[in-house]
TrEMBL record:
Compartments in which it is found: Cytoplasm, Cytoskeleton
Source domain of life: Eukaryota
Record protein name field: KIF-binding protein
Gene3D superfamilies referenced in this protein's UniProt entry, alphabetically: Tetratricopeptide repeat domain (1.25.40.10)
InterPro entries: KBP, TPR-like_helical_dom_sf
Pfam families: KBP_C
Keywords noted in UniProt: Cytoplasm, Cytoskeleton
PANTHER family, per the entry: KIF-BINDING PROTEIN, KIF1-BINDING PROTEIN
CC terms in the record's Gene Ontology section: cytoskeleton
Similarity remark: Belongs to the KIF-binding protein family.
The species this protein was found in: Cymbomonas tetramitiformis
Length: 257
């Protein structure tokens, strides 16, 4: 049986299976089988990966080769990430690293996936309690976000990358706390709160205010009372006004950095 053209395969099989895997990942499974749907997604994506691999021989030294390789890297990233989420760390880690190595060859066209891969590896090593290794991956993600010129990005792409950057900052704050560097931890905590405050539609007011108050406590301990006052003012404003009115107030309250 002859193979359907690559572009047709992407539009039909590939698109369909990726959407189905996304649907499966949103399913809330019962406590006795907490990873059932995600494991089904892993099986589905693994079969899809085999289909993509079948295009490699015919794509060699053609314009399609790069696309096939990038799609394989994306599937490695997705399968690996799901394996990590389902506590198969030994399986997922190498798959994500393999994907990252490929994306690093063409970073300009794979910014979001590369950022996602770095974050995933950082979180994996946080879970493994090796915070030095976690820092290495998370700093790569931070540098990628800060150094890339993305002025021509669509609003959706910009929002996605900013959310991933917020995740990077959040975990770096935890990492530096574990590494015994409270000043750097506080700095990244403040940065996390600041970037979170810009996403008002997604802002969890209670959680944000609690974190801001905790940061204020750190500044009090350091004798930086003005910085603590700013954090507490921001926390109070968010709790009193909620998302609908917090934007205007936060615009006039700069978090201590």
């Amino acid at each position: 049986m002859s193979q359907v053209p690559w572009n047709e395969f992407l539009a039909l099989d590939y698109s369909r299976d990726c959407k189905e895997s996304e649907r499966l990942c949103l399913v809330v499974d019962p406590d006795e089988e907490p990873y059932k749907s995600k494991e089904e997604a892993i099986v589905l994506l693994t079969k899809l990966k085999e289909k993509v691999e079948s295009y490699l021989p015919s794509a060699k030294e053609t314009a399609e080769e790069g696309a096939v390789v990038d799609h394989l890297a994306f599937l490695n990233l997705r399968i690996g990430s799901l394996a990590i989420e389902t506590e198969q760390w030994g399986v997922g880690g190498p798959m994500v690293e393999s994907a990252v190595l490929q994306f690093e060859k063409t970073p300009a066209s794979n910014l979001t996936s590369l950022q996602d891969g770095y974050n995933t590896l950082g979180i994996l090593w946080c879970n493994r309690e090796d915070h030095n290794v976690a820092e290495k991956w998370l700093k790569k993600s931070e540098e990628l976000y800060l150094k890339r010129d993305c002025t021509d990005e669509s609003p959706d792409a910009k929002s996605t990358r900013q959310n991933k950057y917020r995740q990077t900052l959040f975990y770096l704050a935890q990492v530096y706390g574990h590494l015994g560097q409270p000043d750097r931890s506080a700095e990244y905590c403040g940065s996390t709160l600041e970037i979170s405050a810009k996403s008002f539609a997604e802002l969890d007011c209670a959680d944000w205010a609690q974190n801001a108050a905790q940061l204020a406590g750190y500044y009090v301990g350091q004798g930086e009372f003005h910085s603590a006052e700013r954090c507490l003012a921001a926390a109070s404003a968010v709790m009193e006004l909620g998302n609908s009115e917090a934007a205007e107030v936060l615009a006039n309250i700069q978090l201590a950095r």
